[in-house]
């Protein structure tokens, strides 16, 4: 079965695909600058040889099985980024106890055996298979035996240590977008289906699009953010409130965006929010009118920034 998110094709990792292609291997629980090194190398090889590009990742949260941790980007959010990077295929697998028990050779045979893989790109610390028994040395032997070229990229270092997703998770929790976005390939992203809210914004303030955060995703620190919202492939500027609504006594964490110059109903539609900048903390105002005045200031600030609608 092939799914579509925009133009990228998503396949189960054991599906056949005879298109000549270059494959990036990794977890990619977010897509940061270290991952971009792999993707750019794959795209370079593909361009020079008229191949397509592919990437392997997990459609669920592998961290939950062993560490009970959350991810920075969900599978669909990563696919959105892969689409922006003009990748052709995503191969997905579900990481569970059964998958974790697959030995290194079986994993490679299942993923690669029914595909036309011309080259593989990995980071120098890449491991795979049961108990992480597979490594770059084993992968090189496998590739040599199957006439596949292997390209191993050096790690991206930060303060003499590998740039890690755990470091970036802390930046999400802090709401430190400046540092977070400097390491991500594209601005931090939240994707969700617009739900019907209480209607207070439309009646007393500004109409907003409300979405809930995926439970496997690390909650972004509460605040009011300058964002871009993608609707049906078009990009709009927005002011997005993340967290709570103390002026109305609401302590439920959710995400609502006032989308500039957009007036259509969005209920049931999936949108993508890219976070550009934290403008301010959430504060309790004495009245809805005071809040409305502040929101207008937020909008004026956004209107003064570079970029289109």
Q: Measured on Cα atoms, how large is the radius of gyration?
A: 21 Å
Unreliable stretches covering 5 or more consecutive residues: 1-5
What name goes with the CATH superfamily of the largest domain? HUPs
> What is the SS-derived class?
alpha/beta
Instruction: Please provide the count of β strands.
Output: 15
Average pLDDT level = 89
Helix content: 25-40%
> End-to-end distance, in Å?
36 Å
Relative strand content: 25-35%
Question: Strand order across the biggest sheet?
Answer: 1-2-5-4-3-6-7
CATH class of the largest domain: Alpha Beta
Q: What's the CATH topology label of the largest domain?
A: Rossmann fold
The arrangement of helices and strands along the chain is EEEHEHHEHHEHEEEHHEHEEEEEH
Q: Main beta sheet, described?
A: 7 strands, mixed
CATH architecture of the largest domain: 3-Layer(aba) Sandwich
Fold and architecture overview:
With 309 residues, the protein is an alpha/beta fold. It folds into two domains: 12-162, HUPs (Rossmann fold); 187-303, Beta Barrel (Elongation Factor Tu (Ef-tu), domain 3). The protein is 30% helix and 31% strand. It has ten helices and 15 strands. It has helices spanning 33-49, 63-66, 75-84, 97-100, 104-112, 136-145, 165-174, 177-183, 200-204, 288-303, and strands at residues 3-5, 8-12, 17-24, 52-58, 89-93, 115-123, 149-153, 157-158, 161-162, 188-193, 209-211, 223-231, 234-245, 250-259, 270-280. The strands form three sheets. The chain has a seven-stranded mixed sheet, sandwiched between helices. Strands 10-15-12-13-14-11 form a six-stranded antiparallel sheet. β3 (17-24), α1 (33-49) and β4 form a beta-alpha-beta unit. α7 runs antiparallel to α8. The longest helix is centred in the first third of the chain and has 17 residues, at 33-49. The radius of gyration is 21 Å and the shape is elongated. Residues 1-5 have low confidence and may be disordered.
